[in-house]
Amino acid sequence: MKPRFPLAAxxxxxxxxxxxxxxxxxxxxxxxxxxxxxxxxxxxxxxSSTQTKALDKLAKEAATVVAHYPGKAEPLVWQGIxxxxxxxxxxxxxxxxLATKARDIxxxxxxxxxxxxxxxxxxSLGVLYYKVPGSPLGFGDKDxxxxxxxxALAIDPNGLDSNYFYGDYLLDQGDKAGARSYLQKALRAPxxxxxxxxDAGRRREVQKLLAKTA
Length: 214
Fold this sequence. Notes:
mainly alpha; Serine Threonine Protein Phosphatase 5, Tetratricopeptide repeat
């Protein structure tokens, strides 16, 4: 069975890949540009090669933002999410290396602030731990994943992402009834008009998972 790797844990946004350090004046703006870029690439860009090139560009922008705001958790969260997405789309020879890099970045963010990005630090790290294979192939750990995902749920109990990823985790563990409950709760999350690409894209993913719980 082919190893599963993360789509990137969590949170996202809208429009197009920006150049955050040059185009914006505050950390919030710079992080949102990464957020927007990730959602655009994930849900709107067509073609594997085009997506890979766009992610490589966004990863460089994320590194610039992290360097511009040393010691801040939110830029690290988004650098980790972008790196996770690179791992998800990489060939078999590069998947684990990129996933490990993403884990280390997200662990740094979590150490600074476990609640960063509305629970995104805990959630994205948790996603890595259940998507990546366990020993001896990788560092995956279902128990760590559950603990981190539940932390994220405690921070954002009604969130689209937090419920989606916990539902996905439960489905991965064979708990269809539990997964269905959290996925249905994810769909009841309020729509976010400021992040239409993420909002619509994530809800499509929730619906696909729900079909597997029948």
